[in-house]
Amino acid sequence: MEIKFNLDTIIFYVQNVERLKSFYSSVFSFKVVEEYESSWALLEAGSCKIGLHQIGHEYWDESKGTFKFDSNAKLVFEIDQDINEMRTHFVKQNVEMKQIKTFDNYGYWLCDGEDPEGNVFQLKQKK
To answer: Residue ranges of the VOC domain (predicted)?
Structure first.
């Protein structure tokens, strides 16, 4: 029996749904397709959706200051635009972006960035 899976939604548990909803809708131009008060937002991100779900207050550590999530996941967005221009566009919007890189015998340029809560994303452009 062959089973086919289609990734529909990736959910981030976040401290501030409004801040991340604003980030992804303004920086990436993702459309908000669903939201509930300030505890949930769903954004259309191409063939997949990104859900932003507020974490419970029992998981907050306010002594550490601004919340930054420590995650081993990375969202990768393949782009058609020039990656140098996109990186410059993101930096002008105060998005933390690393330098553009590539690897030997690899057909893409890559550039990592972080959203306001530390979730890592990557821009990927075909050479």
So the answer is: 6-126
